[in-house]
Design a protein that fits this description.
Strands 1-2-3-4-5-6-8-7 form an eight-stranded mixed β-sheet, with helices on both faces. The radius of gyration is 16 Å and the shape is globular. It is built from four helices and eight strands. The two termini are about 20 Å apart. A hairpin with a 2-residue loop joins strand 4 and strand 5. It is an alpha+beta fold and about 170 residues long. The protein has a single domain, classed as Aminopeptidase, CATH 3.40.630. The longest helix has 15 residues.
Length: about 170
């Protein structure tokens, strides 16, 4: 299923492609971006290999990977990524914005655009897992309509978009 481009007021969410790796290696180069998720920034070569795997799609036919880079149109610059791992009517989402562009509402606008696109695709359950000390990411989730739940996984709280009933004319089987 083709994901297409998503346009918001200031941003273009562009389907991730291998040619984005070099610019994104710079965007994601700050080790502070890994404070809550662990690891370290990937080199250009590592990011190229990762993007090639992501672009090839999930090896599991029941799972779809949708990945976008975030382009801030006024600067004509990539600033981060948003992603959704979709399995049936459930999507696990995540976002990251490079340090120089944080605090400008980019992650919030991108996450809202992402959730809006998922809703257009009849995704009924949208989830994110957020470290309890990552207040900025929790603010983004809240602004995108997600609410914290009592579910925890690997030390992160699950946030979910409140459930919506299936579209009229559709039946559950």
């Amino acid at each position: 299923m083709r994901i297409g481009r998503v346009e918001t007021d200031r941003l273009s969410l562009v389907p991730l492609a291998l040619e984005h790796a070099d610019e994104m290696a710079e965007v994601l180069s700050d080790p502070a971006l890994h404070a809550f998720i662990g690891g370290a920034p990937l080199t250009r070569e590592q990011l190229r290999a990762r993007y090639a795997r992501l672009a090839a799609g999930s090896p599991d036919p029941s799972v779809t990977w949708w990945n976008w880079v975030i382009r801030l149109r006024e600067e004509d610059r990539l600033t981060g990524t948003v992603q959704a791992t979709v399995s049936g009517p459930v999507a696990e989402v995540a976002w990251v914005v490079g340090t120089p562009w944080q605090g400008r509402g980019i992650a919030t606008e991108a996450a809202r655009g992402l959730v809006g696109r998922l809703r257009q695709r009849d995704i009924r359950s949208v989830r994110a897992h957020i470290h309890p000390s990552h207040h900025a990411s929790a603010s983004v989730a809240r602004a995108a309509g997600l609410v914290p739940t009592g579910h925890w996984e690997d030390g992160e709280r699950r946030w979910e978009l409140p459930a919506t009933p299936p579209a009229q004319g559709h039946t559950r089987q």
